[in-house]
Amino acid sequence: MASHTIELLKNEIPLEQESVVLAEDTVNGLVLVDIINGFCIVGAGNLAPREPNRQISEMINESTRLAKLFCEKKLPVMAFLDSHQPNKPEDPYPPHCIAGTHESNLVPELNWLENETNVTIRRKDCFDGYVGSIEEDGSNVFVDWVKKNRIKTVVVVGVCTDICVLDFVCSTISAKNHGLLKPLENVVVYSHACATFNFPLEIATNIKGSLAHPQEFMHHVGLYMAKERGAKIAKEVLFGAVDKV
To answer: What is the value of pTM for the model shown?
Structure first.
């Protein structure tokens, strides 16, 4: 029944994906959203998967591959890490990824990023990495990163497709359209390097206040809404000698 519903959804709101070729003669940036233990490693926390998950595993593998490629080319990379203070809840979710714990650290496959000179690590305390980049003086670490590196295209990967990834993409595109992120031109979401969580209806109905969250369904919706805002949805990301995406 679930697979039939997903097929109906995809027929009603079909999502065309494209092969995105990143120009070698311009600056491309990679943003990794919350690829941390507390969201990706089985049993690592309240919002971690309870069992191995194919979509999450593929997201980690593809994000790691792409991160290595960007680092080999010495291109700018920014990694957002969800990191909350214990006295600041993030409703409607239970406590998760508390600052200073194993939960809020990069997954083992990406630990090496912390030693790369082209990588900026940003610990955020909210869904949206753009908002989570705002400093007390009003400056924005992400905005400064784009402008300092003269980034023309940002490739976004991570979790969750329909929550933190989507929120960041929407804010970034709004800021770009408002002229706040020059010279940024393109926001690309790489679908195979994104994932969300699975919380079936049969489980949600037995927990008061819970919302069902079917994984494949919400992954598709998240990508669709990102494209609806103006992002390019990529089925593959390549580098090549072209003028622009």
So the answer is: 0.93
Listed in sequence order, the DSSP H helices in the chain are 2-12, 37-40, 54-72, 129-132, 141-149, 166-177, 201-204, 215-229
Collect all residues with Cβ–Cβ distance below 8 Å to 185 and sequence separation of at least 6: 152, 153, 176, 244, 245
Q: Contact 85/99 with Cβ under 8 angstroms?
A: yes
- Sequence-distant (≥ 6) Cβ neighbours of residue 61 within 8 angstroms: 109
Nearest CA to 26 among 182, 179, 150, 155? 150
Residue for token digits 């079909």?
14
**What tens digit of pLDDT does each residue of 115-156 get?**
999 999 999 999 999 999 999 999 999 999 999 999 999 999
Dig out the tokens for 181 from the structure.
């992120």
Judge whether 118 and 77 are in contact, CB under 8 Å: yes
**241, 24 contact by CB (below 8 A):** yes
Cis previous bond, 71, omega within 30: no
* Residue 166 CB burial class (10 angstroms; 0-12, 13-18, ≥19): buried
- In angstroms, rounded to a whole number, what is the distance separating the alpha carbons of residues 229 and 18? 16
Block means of pLDDT (10 residues each) for the chain, 245 residues, are 78 96 96 97 91 97 98 98 87 83 96 98 97 98 98 98 98 98 98 88 60 85 98 96 49
Per-position b or e across 137-155, b if 16+ CB within 10 A of its CB: eeebbbbebbeebebbbbb
Q: How far apart are CA 16 and CA 223, in angstroms?
A: 10
